[in-house]
Amino acid sequence: MNRFSKKYALIFFCIISGILLGASQYSSGFFSFFGIVGLFPIFLRFETSAKTSPYIFGMIIGFSEGLWSFPVIHYHWIFYVWIILVCIIQKACFIAHASWIFEKFPKTYLILIPMSWISFEYILQKIPFGSFALLGESLALYPDFLEFARYFGAFGISFLTKISASSPSVN
């Protein structure tokens, strides 16, 4: 597989990741479980992204995730644009930070990347209208996750989902 086709495969995985994350956060029922594997496709392809900018791939994930908010949000169009911009910025910064962690700390990235996700969710919660897409809230309908959230909150569920998403990529 040449470098050109690897880049398009990575773009495809980014779009799939964004769709899975958006489906988990803006839908209910069965789609909520897509958050568990939302970033799994991108974690599998971190090795090919070393040559290209991770910000671009994070922006693709954020845009495809933000598109899912359109059927859910029935406000003014500027609010919808704000949500897409926040998703793009958050995912671009997270993917860049996660790829840096993956390169610099190959032995401990399994714990550091979910901790990075939690920190970006915490920062996102402090932005006006930014607490709309916490991954831990997407699984609030299920009693098993509610019992876990009783002790650790929505951030604990987010940590649990991201550690399960990044664990299959362990070499």
Overview of this protein structure:
This protein is 65% helix and 0% strand. It is built from six helices and no strands. It has helices at residues 3-26, 40-44, 54-66, 77-104, 109-126, 143-166. Helix 1 packs parallel to helix 3 and helix 4 packs antiparallel against helix 5. It starts with a helix and ends in a 5-residue tail after the last helix. The mean pLDDT is 75.
Give the topology, please.
Elements: H1 3-26, H2 40-44, H3 54-66, H4 77-104, H5 109-126, H6 143-166
Task: Determine the fraction of residues in helical runs and give it as a percent range.
Answer: 55-70%
The biggest beta sheet is recorded as: none
Q: What is the subunit arrangement here?
A: single chain
Using DSSP, what is the number of strands?
Answer: 0
Mean pLDDT: 75
Shape: globular
Estimated radius of gyration: 15 Å
Terminal CA distance reads 21 Å
- Give the topology string: H per helix, E per strand: HHHHHH
Number of separate helices: 6
- Which residue ranges are poorly predicted, with pLDDT under 50 across at least 5 consecutive positions? none
* Class per helix and strand makeup: mainly alpha
- Percent of sequence in beta strands: under 5%
